[in-house]
């Protein structure tokens, strides 16, 4: 019996540990699962790169290539996000090779080498990759970080070594210090949850909802959506009444009874695809008269396919990449969005378009613009500093797939709510939902 | 603290105080919400559905524990595999009409998962059969992580859907009771809930028949009563160990299969199912199948009602609070007398 007790005590400890590990928010942009990936892949990749380098050296004795370090989660839990990013990087490399490289203001064309490493969706692998890129490859700048967790792990290393880094992850903390000022060397391209909340606030206000229930997934991303909503909704006269969390793998949703008891007429759900589908269906079944609004974390086809009840007309803010054909012709992003879609589709042979690849594309557009501005003959440190200054001061009215960027010393994202657009579910796809149509039918 | 707990009266007083506090808290929280009676019924009904799945997972824990003396933490992975395999077969056979499609999906899920259970026992437990139970338990945790990792490689991070057994399509038939009057809240029951309850009832009857009325089932039972005596009677404990894992895997897979249409199966659903099933088994005292089933139903209802009247985010907190209280005050289970466990 005593022995049994000891085993039980041990088990409780074990369970608690398991649970803590399983439930700790790993990365805020997505569910990140640490996964062992055979080391050989990396080595093979490195060898290939070494060969590429030698060949490049042979051919281009005249000019040293610019080096862009690129780190994405090509394997592991965030692979669905990292794969299109890596494909975009390969596409840019192919385009640059075709053009022979980047021509500076001095008229000299220098080749560009993009060194692609895999973070394995794992902050440890990400930090060792960024160290390798900075110290061994001596890259001019970094485009790094698929998930918020990985990006945040790399931020101090880039900062310490004074290398400009553009992240492809969502959390605002990547580019902001705790006091709200911009991190000197770090930039990012994806929209924040704040811009999503702006759209939701406007929409709720237009439809006359003064009280909203807020349900968010119990992880860093979900909590960030709630914090953003709490910061923004009051500006639009919307109050958040009942708010509660849920897990993506829950099978029962007592939240629905709370929604009914609270009496709110609209529920806003802040989660990514899997959790949002479960919560949406539960609310739509248990409280069919309550309207449901989503955030921009679910802008993909899987979300639409998963909805079973009250699917038609579900409104949400999304990046413009999803509704390219329906954008008005005068939209400043229309050109870059259609260009990216055409190029990516041609390069990959028809892979589906994802906003994550778009975030990588935007980062490369900025990087190339910065490299084009470089005077020849500068040392590495001077080049890095010049790139940083360019990103901060010259990215003005800069259209990308994720929005029109206006970087400044205070804001290293440079987007406002117009970076997103408002859509609703129509049939099996998303349809542009212009503001003047809100609540009219 | 230890001394205090050992004293019988102090224990009794602590228990009474605890129950009073819990009841008081429940009433206090419930009063904070303006729930109607039907909403409590709704919460309890939903909890009963989840609890049925916990009960099936708990049955797996009890079966393996009785025969081998180890707690098989891979049990949750069996439920996950059952759900995921059924989903894949259902997608692969999309051209077939509903009934044979779902039957084949269920059959494949149960057979493959049972095979996984047998392989797991042969490859990991059997070679280490002379090791301490603790070692074996750690092995099962390792197996769980491996199975989940494999599921991640096969199915990725997306969630899937299995067709409802009633409609043969993704959206289930929903029964609404009451609520016709203006402003009334109807009681909502998804048709799949009846499938879950029905399957569980049939399964439990089948298990009872197996253990009480068949030779092999009785051999299994004999092995759990007294391993050595059973071995002397010509029953091979090793074979019974394998059989217990096969049975546990099959029951888990059936649980996952019937649960699948009511949720969206995903590769990591096994963790919470396994932990909740474990808590259910602990409530039942870990050795008694019937008590484990009651434990599962109780856990489901208490957890969902508790989450409903406090915050939904507290759902797991409530479940683990129950686990800790059980281990502190009644490690022998709610329905077992102290001395019976001493014998085991």
Features of the shown structure:
heterodimer; A: 441 residues; alpha/beta; Rossmann fold; 2 domains; five-stranded parallel beta sheet; four-stranded parallel beta sheet; 16 strands; globular; B: 344 residues; mainly alpha; ABC transporter involved in vitamin B12 uptake, BtuC; two-stranded antiparallel sheet; 2 strands; 2% strand; disordered C terminus
Helical coverage of chain A, percent range: 40-55%
Q: What is the oligomeric state here?
A: heterodimer
Strand order of the largest sheet of chain B: 1-2
Q: Kindly give the count of domains of chain A.
A: 2
Question: Most extensive interface: pair and counts?
Answer: A-B, 51 and 58 residues
- Summed over residues and divided by their number, the pLDDT of chain B gives a mean of 88
Structural description of this entry:
The complex is a heterodimer of chains A (441) and B (344). Chain A has 441 residues and is of the alpha/beta class. Helix content of chain A is 44%, strand content 17%. Chain A has 2 domains: 41-57 and 64-188 and 353-401, 3-Layer(aba) Sandwich (Rossmann fold), CATH 3.40.50.2300; 193-325 and 421-437, Rossmann fold, CATH 3.40.50.2300. In chain A, the strands form 5 sheets. Chain A has a 5-stranded parallel β-sheet with strand order 4-1-5-6-7, sandwiched between helices. In chain A, α3 (79-99) packs parallel to α12. Chain B has 344 residues and is an all-alpha fold. Chain B contains 14 helices and 2 strands; from the N terminus they run ααααααββαααααααα. A two-stranded antiparallel sheet of chain B has the order 1-2. In chain B, α3 packs antiparallel against α10 and α4 (75-92) runs parallel beside α6 (133-155). The longest helix of chain B is centred in the N-terminal third of the chain and has 32 residues, at 37-68. Classes of the chains: A alpha/beta (441), B mainly alpha (344). At the A-B interface, α1, β9, α8 and α9 of A face α3, α6, α11, α12 and α13 of B.
């Amino acid at each position: 019996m005593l022995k049994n007790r000891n085993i039980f005590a041990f088990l409780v400890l074990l369970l608690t540990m398991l649970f803590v590990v399983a439930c700790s928010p790993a990365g805020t942009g997505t569910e990140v699962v640490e996964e062992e990936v055979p080391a050989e892949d990396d080595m093979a990749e490195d060898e290939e790169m070494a060969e590429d380098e030698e060949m490049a050296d042979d051919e281009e004795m005249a000019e040293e290539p610019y080096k862009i370090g690129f780190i994405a989660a090509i394997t592991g839990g965030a692979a669905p996000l990292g794969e299109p990013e890596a494909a975009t990087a390969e596409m840019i490399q192919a385009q640059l090779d075709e053009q022979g490289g980047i021509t500076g203001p001095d008229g000299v064309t220098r080749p560009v080498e993009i060194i692609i490493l895999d973070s394995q969706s794992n902050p440890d692998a990400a930090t060792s990759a960024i160290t390798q890129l900075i110290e061994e490859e001596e890259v001019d700048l970094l485009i790094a970080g698929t998930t918020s967790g990985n990006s945040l792990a790399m931020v101090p290393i880039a900062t310490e070594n004074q290398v400009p880094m553009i992240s492809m992850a969502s959390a605002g903390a990547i580019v902001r210090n705790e006091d709200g000022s911009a991190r000197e060397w770090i930039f990012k391209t994806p929209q924040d949850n704040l811009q999503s909340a702006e759209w939701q606030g406007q929409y709720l206000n237009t439809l006359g909802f003064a009280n909203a229930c807020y349900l968010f997934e119990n992880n860093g991303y979900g909590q960030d959506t709630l914090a953003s909503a709490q910061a923004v909704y009051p500006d639009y006269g919307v109050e958040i009444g009942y708010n509660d969390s849920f897990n993506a793998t829950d099978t029962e949703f007592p939240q629905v009874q709370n929604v009914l008891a609270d009496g709110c007429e609209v529920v806003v759900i802040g989660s990514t695809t899997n959790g949002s589908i479960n919560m949406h269906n539960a609310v739509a079944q248990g409280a069919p008269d309550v309207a449901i609004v989503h955030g921009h974390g679910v802008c993909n086809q899987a979300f639409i396919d998963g909805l079973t009840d009250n699917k038609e007309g579900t409104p949400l803010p999304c990046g413009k990449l999803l509704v390219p054909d329906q954008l008005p012709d005068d939209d400043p992003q229309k050109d870059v969005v259609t260009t990216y879609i055409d190029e990516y589709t041609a390069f990959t042979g028809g892979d589906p378009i994802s906003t994550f690849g778009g975030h990588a594309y935007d980062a490369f557009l900025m990087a190339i613009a910065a490299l084009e501005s470089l005077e020849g003959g500068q040392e590495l440190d001077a080049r890095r500093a010049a790139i940083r200054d360019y990103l901060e001061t010259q990215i003005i009215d800069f259209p990308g797939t994720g929005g029109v960027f206006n970087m400044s010393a205070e804001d290293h994202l440079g987007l406002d709510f117009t970076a997103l657009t408002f859509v609703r579910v129509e049939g099996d796809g998303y349809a542009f939902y212009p503001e003047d149509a809100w609540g009219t039918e | 603290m230890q001394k205090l707990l050992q004293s019988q009266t102090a224990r009794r007083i602590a228990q009474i105080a605890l129950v009073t506090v819990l009841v008081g808290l429940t009433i206090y929280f419930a009063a904070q919400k303006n729930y109607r009676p039907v909403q409590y019924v709704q919460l309890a009904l939903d909890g009963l559905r989840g609890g049925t799945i916990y009960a099936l997972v708990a049955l797996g824990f009890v079966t393996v524990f009785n025969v081998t003396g180890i707690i098989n933490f891979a049990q949750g992975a069996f439920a996950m595999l059952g759900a995921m395999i059924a989903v894949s077969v259902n997608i692969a056979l999309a051209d077939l009409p509903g009934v044979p499609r779902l039957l084949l999906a269920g059959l494949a899920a149960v057979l493959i998962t049972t095979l996984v259970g047998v392989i797991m026992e042969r490859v990991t437990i059997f070679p280490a059969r002379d090791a301490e139970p603790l070692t074996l338990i750690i092995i099962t945790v390792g197996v769980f992580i491996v199975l989940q990792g494999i599921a991640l490689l096969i199915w990725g991070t997306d969630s899937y859907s299995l067709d409802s057994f009633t409609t043969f399509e993704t959206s289930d038939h929903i029964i609404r009771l009451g609520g016709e009057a203006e402003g009334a809240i109807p009681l909502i029951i998804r048709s799949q809930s009846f499938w879950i309850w029905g399957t569980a009832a049939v399964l439990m009857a089948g298990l009872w028949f197996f253990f009480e009325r068949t030779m092999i089932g009785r051999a299994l039972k004999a092995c759990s009563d007294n391993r050595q005596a059973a071995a002397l009677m010509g029953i091979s404990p090793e074979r019974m160990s394998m059989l217990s894992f096969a049975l546990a895997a099959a029951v888990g897979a059936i649980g996952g299969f019937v649960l699948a249409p009511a949720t969206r199966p995903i590769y990591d659903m096994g963790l919470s199912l396994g932990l909740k099933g474990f808590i259910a088994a602990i409530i039942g005292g870990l050795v008694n199948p019937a008590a484990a089933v009651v434990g599962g139903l109780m856990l489901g209802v208490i957890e969902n009602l508790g989450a409903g009247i406090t915050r939904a985010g507290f759902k797991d907190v409530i479940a683990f609070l129950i686990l800790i209280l059980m281990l502190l005050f009644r490690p022998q289970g709610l329905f077992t007398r102290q001395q019976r466990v001493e014998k085991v």
